[in-house]
Design brief:
Number of strands: 13
Helix content: 25-40%
Strand order of the largest sheet: 5-4-3-6-7-13-10
Distance between the termini: 33 Å
Shape: globular
Radius of gyration: 19 Å
Structural class: alpha/beta
CATH class: Alpha Beta
CATH superfamily: Vaccinia Virus protein VP39
Largest sheet: 7 strands, mixed
CATH architecture: 3-Layer(aba) Sandwich
Number of helices: 9
Strand content: 15-25%
Order of helices and strands: EEHHEHEHEEHEHEEHEHEEHE
Length: about 300
């Protein structure tokens, strides 16, 4: 069962509906979620944290249990209302992550997992807003779908074999959704038309890094994440099973994953960047201290 379902689009992004019966499972899944666990290594403990595009608030719940002063913002009004009804202890408000109703320099940390790729106009508006609301020295952990080598190979194979319409083709039958190339129909990046003409962008590594830096952030780490999800997406359930968004590999898939990880950004599903808002005055008091980490993969 899917935990999310794409809903109607707004004039600039996509809304989602959520299966609230899986809320507890989604909270538990955070223990194995690459981006959530990466965020725990970098998010400042001092100050407030924002989950931008929080859905039903499962990441808010997870971080709150770990002692973070965390709140969430979500664009789907019905989801916000249901979250407040079911989980009144969570601070989840209605809002657009590209136009947040808060002053500048409000948060020490911010997470945005699989959100900004749904803005048809591109990443500029949400990334600029993420930068605005962070304290100088604040940390943002942002993930988007990665247009990896495996996805590009699969896309090309599908295009080559489409006239033949094969039922089975060794070594695998091409899976995944068709991808509209960047620049077609006015799209700025590679597009997956899952629902209507636009659903989300997929980004090459350099495209995402360039946009984050252009927004004014300093990149602390740039990493491939959700590798098993990438194998599930492109190779199918015969390799990796999807159990309510918990991805369990077969023995063959586990070995394949170990080999392919030697080539970063070959098969990952998401690309996650840890970014820092530059400090106005290096070492100024009040800016959260962040331990220096290795830069890019």
């Amino acid at each position: 069962m899917n935990v999310t379902t794409p809903k109607l689009q707004t004039d600039h992004t996509v809304l989602f509906e959520w299966d609230f019966s899986l809320f507890d499972q989604m909270v538990r899944n955070c223990n194995e979620d690459d981006t959530v666990q990466l965020a725990l290594k970098y998010l400042p403990r001092d100050g407030r944290t924002l989950e931008a595009g929080c859905g039903p608030g499962h990441v808010v719940e997870y971080l709150q249990k770990l002692g973070y002063d965390v709140e969430g913002v979500e664009l789907n009004e019905a989801v916000v209302a249901e979250t407040r009804r079911r989980y009144p202890h969570l601070r989840v408000s209605l809002g657009d992550v590209s136009a947040l109703a808060c002053p500048a320099d409000t948060y020490s940390g911010l997470t945005s997992f699989g959100v900004v790729e749904h803005f048809r106009a591109g990443l500029e508006a949400p990334l600029a807003e993420h930068l605005r609301v962070l304290h100088p020295g604040g940390i943002a952990v942002i993930s988007v779908p990665s247009f990896t080598v495996l996805r590009r190979l699969n896309h090309r194979l599908r295009a080559m074999l489409r006239p033949l319409r094969p039922r089975n083709f060794p070594p695998w039958r091409p899976r995944g959704r068709p991808v509209n190339r960047r620049g077609r129909d006015g799209f700025r990046y590679h597009v997956v038309p899952r629902q209507g003409p636009f659903f989300e962008y997929w980004f090459r590594r350099e495209e995402f890094e360039r946009q984050v830096e252009a927004a004014g952030f300093e990149i602390v780490a740039s990493l491939p994440t959700h590798n098993l999800t990438g194998l599930w997406s492109e190779l199918g359930e015969g390799w990796v099973r999807n159990k309510n968004r918990r991805f369990v590999p077969t023995p063959w898939a586990r070995q394949l994953d170990g080999i392919l990880r030697l080539w970063p950004f070959f098969h990952n599903f998401m690309h996650t960047i840890v970014a820092r808002k530059p400090a106005a005055i290096p070492g100024a008091s009040g800016a959260p201290h962040v331990e220096s980490k290795p830069g890019r993969a």
